[in-house]
Task: inverse folding
């Protein structure tokens, strides 16, 4: 149980285009989902917290107009990187918190974004 | 600001030996701590957690120790195996800005020597 999937697992896009990454909780309902970014050999940095049915809360320094987050249902959150640039190339990881638990988070496998 | 840090960036251990990975945290209000294992190109994998009202918790081959006095967390892996080779992150859960969020430490790479 407690599986989180991400799609796509990897994506290559051209500079200036937008790309959408999906995060799904497969066997539980997630009122809260988190989006992280991880550069090579670095830690996971929280970008934003997404609550179902409300606006996402972005961490300091993360542009909300560039990284659009939508959490339209209890099993799906999407992250759209708009007008992508090579510096946005990174490993994007989502996690989901079961609405029955206030602590445990379950992580997705990550999405590798490469912007050329 | 609030942060979670690690003392050692890389740890090499002989197969069969015990491993100890350390972590220092600075947010005294954090109430829940987690250790994750991350293999290359994959998402973090939950290993073990501990709540702030405990000082020790054991799992299968792993033990987490929490010392709130000095804000220190450690992960002990018994009889380390080649499959344990990965990057290990400690993480803390705390209330920030009115909501719960998890902050990750910098990570320690564990290399198991066969």
Result:
């Amino acid at each position: 149980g407690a599986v989180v999937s991400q799609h796509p697992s990897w994506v290559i896009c051209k500079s200036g285009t937008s790309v959408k990454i999906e995060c799904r909780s497969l066997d539980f309902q997630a009122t809260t989902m988190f989006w992280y970014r991880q550069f090579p050999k670095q830690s996971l940095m929280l970008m934003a917290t997404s609550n179902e049915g409300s606006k996402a809360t972005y961490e300091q320094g993360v542009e909300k107009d560039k990284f659009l987050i939508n959490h339209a249902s209890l099993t799906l959150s999407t992250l759209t990187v708009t007008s992508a640039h090579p510096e946005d190339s990174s490993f994007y990881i989502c996690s989901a918190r079961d609405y029955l638990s206030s602590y445990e988070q379950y992580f997705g496998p990550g999405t590798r974004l490469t912007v050329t | 600001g609030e942060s979670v840090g690690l003392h050692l960036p890389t740890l090499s251990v002989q197969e069969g030996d015990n491993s100890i990975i350390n972590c220092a945290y600075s947010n005294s209000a954090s109430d829940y701590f987690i250790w994750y294992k991350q293999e290359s190109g994959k998402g973090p994998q939950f290993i073990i957690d501990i709540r702030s009202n405990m000082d020790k918790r054991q799992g299968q081959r792993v033990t987490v120790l929490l010392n709130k006095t000095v804000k220190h967390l450690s992960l002990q892996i018994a009889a380390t195996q080649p499959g344990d080779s990965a990057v290990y992150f400690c993480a803390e859960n705390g209330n920030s800005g009115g909501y719960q969020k998890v902050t990750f430490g910098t990570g320690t790479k564990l290399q198991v020597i066969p």
Chain A touches chain B through 24 residues (CB under 8 Å). Chain A has a mean pLDDT of 93. Chain A is about 0% helix and 55% strand.
